[in-house]
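Lab channel / #folding
Pinned by the channel admin:
"Please post every new chain as: sequence first, then the structure tokens as a reply. Keep commentary short and put observations after the output so the thread stays searchable."

First post following the new format, from NK:
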Amino acid sequence: MDLDEIQLTAEEAMEKAIDYLKNELRGMRTGRASTGLVDYIKVDCYGSMTDLRQLAVISVPEPTQLLIKPFDPSSIQQVSKAIQAAGLGLNPVVEGKHIRLMLPSLSGDRRQQLVGSIKQTAEQSKVTIRNARRDANKHIDQAAKDKTSHISEDDVERAKTEIQDLLKRYEKQVDGLMESKIKEIQEV
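Reply from TO:
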């Protein structure tokens, strides 16, 4: 592996950690309705587990309400059961060919629990990013020891500095996403 490949691999791992964090935060309930809350709920339909967003149109008719209209009205009971089983604390109300979800306002205790959960998820992402840095630095050191690679000490230091800069940039993104979500929870 040359130094550019090592850096690219580390950056890809860090980007995946950011994408994972974004998906996790999108699914956290804030008291304000968001389709991201239910998009990835798995529904046992047609013999396989499928994301809800692939089985229904999800809309936000009011700030505290979600409306779910399954493409196949016969699947409405499976969708309702999946929402209840998802552990979001929401009770689906089946109204003919659609399901209405009312999002109650969050209590102070629940807000604090969510803030803690957000911080924990963000920290997990930072650990993943730091692991990518550690792995990249190991690969850089191995490449430097390899007699056939002809990598100078300056190149090794430059590569490690670039990896550290990547780490700082991605950790800053994690902090920004975390602060944004915490602010969203606290203002509702």
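NK: The first strand starts at residue 42 and ends at 45.
TO: also worth noting, The CA atoms of residues 115 and 183 lie 9 Å apart.
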